[in-house]
Design brief:
By secondary structure, this protein is an alpha+beta fold. It starts with a helix and ends with a helix. GO terms for molecular function: DNA binding; DNA-binding transcription factor activity, RNA polymerase II-specific.
Length: 743
């Protein structure tokens, strides 16, 4: 079943989450019509390879054209219209930046997998629940409503200022007309009446000036309250969601909505600023005793400028955190002399700023770290923000060719730092720019979330553990001394993040039973998730009991094994994986002989084994576990083929495959058949001879079990099958069974 088919079977609350991340950037119609083709492409790799992304974009357009031809024959007018619109979108938006569509589709597929994993969990995790708080959603709607109301109020005040300007022009004209009359004419009754009318008009002018200033004051106050309270909270929430997304959590949306709010508020403030300038013009042409303009205008203008400064400073954000293209799911871990990318956005999108803002990137500026190591950034570290590179037209800049380089320090300083010390050092990448607009000059600064610098890829697992722990434990964006005294983490939240590592990295999260096993491994006991606090040392620094490695190194090795060697089997859900030996026997003891399950080794790094249940002649139940397969052995033979071809030679030398049913009762071939590397074929007889005079051979995994042993001896995997062994197989097994053993 395709991933999209699984998504369509979700409950409505999960379907609503899916609906949130499909928009005009990647319409859901295309996801639906091209589901299988989309899922068969490597969008993750294309997101970091422009040539590959361009090929995929062109192929995507070809696929859309084929769908368009099909629906044209069916005369489906609505679908024809939508597909033409989508084709125009793909060609127009992404032709100049094909990697952007690859990033979008990769993120959508990843988010679908995360939601599918969440749907399989009995209870939503505490972190994800907090991110989807209904109070937050209500506040978002309130912010958008208030911003719209403020924009309308500023526009209405424009009309009041225009009326005031017209009224003053009429007053000026009538006043100058009277002033031009001869002295004798000024004493006439008609003129006296006109003077009374002018006085009444001046009173109206005074009233209108006070009214306009009052309205301007209210608009400024509403903007101040909105920015200080609700909008600031919205921005902080977005930054927290970004932190969580960086460590595998739900994708963080909402930046476009924030941009809309920031931009409308900035436009309203500039509009108010122009209104105050117009009042200053009116003041130079007419003033009087008790005139409110010279008293109130300077204070209002100062407040407007202050709000603009504050708004601009908050609007300068890191849209996409630093990340090496070679490790897209390990952001904020940077290797020396390896390029990384980072993207910034100014949430105030004004056409006047296009290509006018130059951003400079630096590292560890004005901050002290816990390390003696110092770095500089090589590559293009100054670029202009523009609206052309982003598909959504945002005012942004993406640095794609930055490289951190370690500076030479005093001799011996680097040698004093252990591996954990290096991966617990936090550094900061800073960005600065200057905005000059309408007479205002505003200096802007922002920083990435803390990054970890490594010099060898072997340090990446522990560095990623540091990134996870930091972003799980704090929303402080710049606590570079965090690991001087790292706080404990709530076990329930940590387990949720660990499940995210699997859903984001290998396409399927962990269920409650698997998480229970991890919890027991971390704590050594059964505990209450919500109450238990786990230390950083327990997670990443202390060795597991009786082992030479930490919990995190063990888990990271399993992730690597899944990603490189058993990914399809993991995604299908056929690998139980995290189950102890004791629990394994409880599950299998009442099952049909030949029932087996797959679990990850607890004693070997990056190993997977299978255990099957058997029944002795006296009726007793026995269990057999094969020596774990590691990545070296799985590189030689696919794991699905191992399960298909595995043979056990008993004491009487009769080989047989003991694996019949995947727990609980799924026929082995039904579970793994589609993953076999090839279908069994007729094999050549030994007498046929091989190429260049050699006897043909095949590879099969074999174990030998003696009568007095309940466990297989170390299996001799990948043994070449000699003619004598083949003859034994022909004697005791059917041709179909032999064919099944051939890879």
């Amino acid at each position: 079943m395709s991933q999209w088919s699984q998504v369509q079977q979700l409950e409505i609350k999960f379907l609503e989450q899916v609906d949130q991340f499909y928009d005009d950037n990647f319409p859901m119609e295309i996801r639906h019509l091209l589901a299988q083709w989309i899922e068969s492409q490597d969008w993750e790799a294309a997101a970091n390879n422009e040539a590959m992304a361009m090929i995929l974009l062109q192929n995507l357009i070809i696929q859309v054209d084929e769908q368009l031809d099909r629906v044209s024959q069916e005369k489906n007018l609505l679908l024809i219209h939508n597909l033409k619109r989508v084709r125009k979108l793909l060609q127009g938006k992404y032709h100049g930046n094909p990697m952007h569509i690859a990033v979008i589709i990769s993120n959508c597929l990843r988010e679908e997998r995360r939601i599918l994993a969440a749907a399989s969990m009995p209870v939503q995790g505490p972190l994800e629940k907090s991110l989807q708080n209904s109070v937050v959603s209500e506040r978002q709607r309130n912010v958008e409503h208030k911003v719209s109301a403020i924009k309308n109020s500023a526009q209405m005040t424009d009309q009041d200022v225009k009326y005031l300007e017209d009224l003053q022009e009429e007053f000026d004209f009538r006043y100058k007309t009277i002033q031009s009359l001869e002295q004798n004419d000024k004493n006439s009754a008609l003129i006296k009446q006109e003077m009374l009318a002018l006085q009444a008009m001046l009173n109206t002018l005074d009233y209108k000036r006070k009214e306009v200033l009052s309205k301007i004051g209210r608009v400024i106050h509403e903007i101040d309250m909105l920015v200080s309270n609700m909008l600031t909270e919205e921005l902080l929430d977005w930054k927290r969601r970004q932190q969580i997304a960086c460590i595998g959590g739900p994708l963080h949306g909402g930046l476009d909505q924030l941009q809309n709010c920031f931009t409308l508020l900035a436009e309203s403030l500039f509009q108010v600023r122009r209104q105050l300038e117009k009042l200053d013009e009116l003041l130079t042409r007419l003033t009087y005793d008790g005139d409110p303009i010279p008293v109130q205008r300077p204070q209002l203008l100062e407040k407007v400028n202050f709000l603009l400064y504050n708004l601009f400073r908050n609007s300068f954000v890191v849209e996409r955190q630093p990340c090496m293209p070679t490790h897209p799911q390990r952001p904020m871990v940077l290797k020396t002399l390896i390029q990384f990318t980072v993207k910034l956005r100014l949430l105030i999108k004004l056409p006047e700023l296009n290509y006018q803002i130059r951003v400079k990137a630096t590292i560890d500026k004005n901050v002290s770290t816990v390390s003696n190591r110092r770095f500089v950034l090589c590559g293009t570290h100054v670029k202009a923000m523009n609206m052309d590179e982003s598909a959504n037209g945002s005012l942004s800049v993406e640095f794609r060719h930055l490289q951190p380089k370690e500076m030479k320090t005093s001799a011996g300083s680097k040698g004093n730092e252990g591996p954990h010390m290096v991966t617990e050092e936090l550094h900061s990448i800073s960005f600065e720019t200057q905005v000059c607009l309408y007479g205002l000059t505003i200096n802007l600064e922002t920083s990435s979330l803390p990054v970890v610098m490594i010099s060898n890829v072997s340090q990446l697992p522990n560095a990623w553990a540091s990134i996870i722990w930091y972003n799980l434990s704090t929303n402080d964006p710049q606590n570079l001394s965090f690991f001087n005294n790292p706080p404990a983490a709530t076990l329930s939240q940590l387990l949720e993040v660990l499940s995210w590592q699997f859903s984001s990295y290998v396409g399927r999260g962990l269920n409650s039973e698997q998480l229970n096993m991890l919890a027991e491994k971390l704590t050594g006991q059964q505990v209450n998730y919500n109450d238990y606090q786990l230390s950083w040392a327990k997670f990443c620094k202390e060795h597991l009991p009786g082992k030479s490695f930490t919990f995190w190194v063990w888990l990271e090795a399993i992730l690597d094994l899944i990603k490189k060697h058993i990914l399809p089997l993991w995604i299908d859900g056929y690998i139980m994986g995290f189950v102890s030996k004791e629990k394994e026997r409880i599950l299998l003891k009442d099952k049909t002989p030949g029932t087996f399950l797959l679990r990850f080794s607890e004693s070997n790094l990056g190993g997977i084994t299978f255990t099957w249940v058997d029944q002795l002649e006296n009726g007793d139940v026995t269990f057999h576990s094969v020596e774990p397969y590691n990545k070296g052995r799985l590189s030689a033979l696919p794991f699905a083929d191992i399960l298909r071809d595995y043979k056990v030679i008993m004491a009487d030398n009769i080989p047989e495959n003991p694996l019949k049913y995947l727990y609980p009762d799924i026929p082995k071939d039904k579970a793994f058949g589609k993953h076999y590397s090839c279908q069994p074929n007729e094999v050549s007889k030994p007498s046929d001879g091989g190429g260049k005079g050699y006897v043909p051979s095949v590879f099969i995994p074999v174990s030998k079990i003696l009568n007095d042993s309940t466990e297989p001896h170390s299996p001799s995997d990948l043994l070449p099958m000699s003619p004598s062994v083949y003859a034994v197989l022909r004697e005791h097994l059917s041709p179909t069974a032999i064919e099944t053993a051939v890879s």
